[in-house]
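To close the section, here is one more complete example, presented without commentary so you can practise reading it yourself. The ligand is 2AL.
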Amino acid sequence: MRLDEFNDADWEDAVEMLRPCVDVQRWCEEVADGRPYASVDDLVGAAGDAAAPFTADEVEAALAHHPRIGERPAGDDVEAAMSRREQSGVDPTDAATAAALAEGNRAYEARFGRVFLIRAAGRSSAEMLAALHERLGNTPAEEDAVVAEQLREIALLRLRGLFT
Ligand code: 2AL
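Output:
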């Protein structure tokens, strides 16, 4: 998409364009309200400010849209395609790491009651597994902050990706 298409879109359409980045209504609305943007960098900057930080309720709602690491979604919607691309560092033929990730995901969900979330783009499965094990040692409050920041990173990368 070109920036001027986004700048010129109807408000409702602009909100829907943003939603695959992160399904947080307040964030989509704030970013749409900030139009027009002079550059993609300006847009991403404003989007980052609107995501600093996401509240606990916003994180909770948005997490439902993120498949587990190691479970690449098969759908052909925008969100599924984004997730597959982000998880391209997960080697599906590496059975040992896949099993360790599945076990780590179970342990994380048992400890924190939600899906393990990490910005997957640019990370190998071994790196994500190491991060998962490290984060299992966090307190719930520490982990809340980490998850909100990871969600922010994912949203901003997705946003930038819409314009490249
Ligand atoms: C994901 C995902 O789908 N994309 C990403 O960067 N992280 N999922 C996850 N559970 O962390």
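Once you have examined the tokens, check your reading against these statements. The chain has one domain: 3-162. The chain has nine helices and no strands.
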